[in-house]
Amino acid sequence: MILTSLHILNYRNIREASLEFSPKLNCLVGLNGQGKTNVLDAIYLLSFTKSAMTSQDSLNITHGEEMAMVQGTYNDGMSATKSLNDAAELPNDGKFTISCGLRRGVKKQFRKDKKDYPRLLEHIGLIPLVMVCPADHQLIEEGSDERRRFMDVVIGQRNRKYLDCLATYNTLLKQRNALLKQLADANADTNDQRLTTNDLLEVLEWQMVEPAEYIFHARTKFFEEFEPYFQEVYKMIKSDKSDKSDKSDKSDKSDKSDKSDKSDESDKSDESEKPMLRYVSQLQDRDLREAYARTRQRDLILGWTSQGPHKDDLDMRLGDYPLKQVGSQGQQRTFVLAMKLAQALYLADTTGEAPILLLDDIFDRLDSERVERIVAMVQGEQFGQIFITDTDRQHLTEIIQPGPDAKIFHVENGTIV
């Protein structure tokens, strides 16, 4: 999938921009806060129908303006209909346009060519995309919801039924949680009330089981297929020299938080310790319908549902130890970067089409050798079109030379040239 051109109007700090892109490598350079990430977010919006930075569409409209528009022209390179999206028939030349209009107080308008989508969900997967950014450290630092989102973003781009089951399950889960809270607040204690409570909960639980089991099996299959990609990419970007540089960089930046400033002792893992990524789910050892019935009274006390795929997680390890506890900054960055780049390879192989790859400010704390290795890797045939943002440090501009396969854009105060 190739994004050939992008037109932006009043999107965040970008008042107006019309850009033509290289089919392979595009680098946006400039100081922090100038709008580089906003360009990538506009591209992300056209793939996922929402911003990567906020769930409130109105926040993406330039301050003082009433509307915003983002439009991208793509070349699929395929004459046939995308298998994932029956509604997304492409013209014979494989070219199509996606546009998103935002207006304050009005539902956003999302179109393929000149046709509105009946449901935004129908668009997901048409333009496969992977974004790598500094916020990816939340995969390690934050709760399991971030790691489930990692799974959902990848699986959802190649499996429409998965998205449908996920939407159905989440709707039913909200209904069950609302009922549990309502009943807990009411403190119902009569036999008739308990009977009614059990009946209502049982109806919801029976409806939840089928989509929950589909989600579980889809995630299980995904990790069986994905893990080799992760191991391959991790080895490609890992090296002793890079790790030593990361440790040195870590000590030079002692003003960072205590959590990120790990000592050398925390860097126990060496090249012999294999990175491990394992899917963990309650459904691996229990029948969900029985689990709902068994924990119903406890859930009434808690006021929320304690069983189901919404409790799934990823176990991230170096050897036998949790990555969060023993991994140095360099090892954690390498681990997460490998997870995200492996997404691109996995989607390319399983969909037959390389996704667009967005690399947002990921080189800020990597040594020049590793930067060069990563850039060389993503420029290979395995990866598709790439967008990189950077502060234009010398070592990166020496690696990326403008030409037919590479373009460099300079961004300053929302203006792109």
Detailed description of the structure:
The protein is of the alpha/beta class. The chain folds into two domains: 2-128 and 356-416, Rossmann fold, CATH 3.40.50.300; 140-332, Up-down Bundle (Glutathione S-transferase Yfyf (Class Pi), Chain A, domain 2), CATH 1.20.1050.90. The protein is built from twelve helices and 15 strands. Strands 2-1-4-5-6-7 form a six-stranded antiparallel sheet, covered by helices on one side. A six-stranded mixed sheet has the order 8-12-13-3-14-15, sandwiched between helices. Strands 9-10-11 form a three-stranded antiparallel sheet. A hairpin with a 2-residue loop joins strand 1 and strand 2 (14-20). It starts with a strand and ends with a strand. Mean pLDDT is 84; it is low at 78-91 and 240-269.
Summarize, please.
The chain is an alpha/beta fold and 417 residues long.
Give descriptors for this structure.
Rossmann fold, 12 helices, single chain, globular, 6-stranded mixed sheet, Glutathione S-transferase Yfyf (Class Pi), Chain A, domain 2, alpha/beta, 417 residues, 21% strand
Largest sheet: 6 strands, antiparallel
Globally, the shape reads globular
Beta fraction of the residues?
Answer: 15-25%
CATH architecture of the largest domain, please? Up-down Bundle
Mean pLDDT: 84
The CATH topology name of the largest domain reads Glutathione S-transferase Yfyf (Class Pi), Chain A, domain 2
Distance between the amino and carboxyl termini: 24 Å
- Total number of distinct structural domains: 2
For the biggest β-sheet, the strand order reads 2-1-4-5-6-7
CATH superfamily of the largest domain: RecF/RecN/SMC, N-terminal domain
**Parts with pLDDT < 50 across at least 5 consecutive residues:** 78-91, 240-269
What's the total number of strands?
15
Q: SSE order in H/E notation? A: EEEHEEEEEHHHHHEHHEEHHEHEHEE
Q: SS-based structural class?
A: alpha/beta
Helix tally? 12
Share in helix: 40-55%
Report Rg.
23 Å
The CATH class name of the largest domain reads Mainly Alpha
